[in-house]
Write a structure and sequence with these properties.
Helix 5 crosses helix 6 (121-133) and helix 5 (92-103) packs across helix 10 (224-240). Strand 5 (114-117), helix 6 (121-133) and strand 6 form a beta-alpha-beta unit. This protein is of the alpha/beta class. The protein has a six-stranded parallel β-sheet, with helices on both faces. It has a four-stranded mixed β-sheet with strand order 1-3-4-2, with helices on both faces. The chain has helices at residues 5-16, 30-40, 55-61, 67-72, 92-103, 121-133, 145-155, 167-171, 209-216, 224-240, 250-258; strands at 47-49, 64-65, 77-80, 86-89, 114-117, 138-141, 159-162, 176-179, 197-200, 220-222.
């Protein structure tokens, strides 16, 4: 219920005149999520988008998994066929890359190391997308080094781990920094090159303190709203068989809804 996705999908449905419903579900725990998926195998629901904390569980419950979701270690998109089979995919990485292309077009994600703050599921999905994009090195910075090293183990070559005492070294020569951490103080951005771009996956508020710090340094910034919108587009197509109309300014509508216009 905390997600903006129902607003986005409902706006597209209405604008395109499609007969569809996109509504939030709120399973209380893992058992409730299991029951939800079991029900969806036979009740005619076309698909689900999955939010935290159920993305890894969604992947485990699926009958088929795309390579993208497997690399991400999670699924934010489940679709159900007429025989009750569950198919898992991840569009989070697509949303992240598109957000950079839209808001920081000068940032070449394949040209320099990228830093990810945090080592949870969102960080893993981001790392997978960056590696697929050709990023030469993904640096995971986390308060607990062991958690960051888990991603090194998951991906192997191309991913390195740092703790918060090593931020300056991680930021040196980085082309992008992505905040995928759920909370806590953010490290200073002094060590970043002037050409770096900074992203925060959060979209409430749109301009986080982290992004404000980046702007104060004159760095390009990428917000979480564009990532959310762009990950939603392939989900919409999976559900309804058509792409959202690109001429419809869904971001402007979402900004008004969020009180950010």
């Amino acid at each position: 219920r905390h997600s903006l996705s129902p607003f986005l999908h409902t706006a597209w449905l209405r604008q395109m005149g499609l007969n569809g419903v996109y509504a939030p579900f709120a399973p209380r725990d893992e058992h409730g999520f299991d029951r939800l998926i079991l029900s969806c195998r036979s009740n005619g629901i076309k698909g689900l988008n999955i939010t935290a904390p159920f993305k890894a569980q969604a992947l485990a419950l699926a009958d088929t998994v795309t390579g993208t979701a497997k690399k991400a270690g999670s699924a934010n998109l489940l679709t159900f066929d007429e025989d009750g089979y569950v198919h898992a995919d991840s569009t989070d990485g697509h949303g992240l890359i598109r957000a950079f292309e839209m808001q920081a077009p000068a940032c070449d994600l394949a040209a320099a190391p990228a830093v990810i703050l945090g080592a949870g599921g969102a960080a893993r999905a981001a790392a997978a997308a960056l590696l697929d994009k050709g990023c030469p090195e993904v640096r995971i910075v986390n308060r607990t080094l062991a958690r960051a090293e888990e991603l090194v183990f998951a991906f192997g070559k191309g991913v390195t781990a740092f703790d918060l005492t090593q931020v300056s070294r991680a930021f040196a020569d980085a082309g992008a920094v992505i905040n995928a951490a759920s909370g806590g103080p953010h490290p200073p951005l002094d060590a970043l090159p002037d050409a770096a771009a900074v992203m925060d996956m959060t979209y409430r508020p749109l301009k986080t303190a982290f992004l404000q710090s980046a702007e104060a340094r004159g760095l390009a910034t990428v917000d979480g709203l564009n990532m959310l919108i762009e990950q939603a587009r392939p989900s919409f197509q999976a559900f309804y068989g058509v792409e959202p109309w690109p001429g419809f300014d869904i971001r402007a509508l979402a900004l008004t809804f969020l009180g950010e216009a």
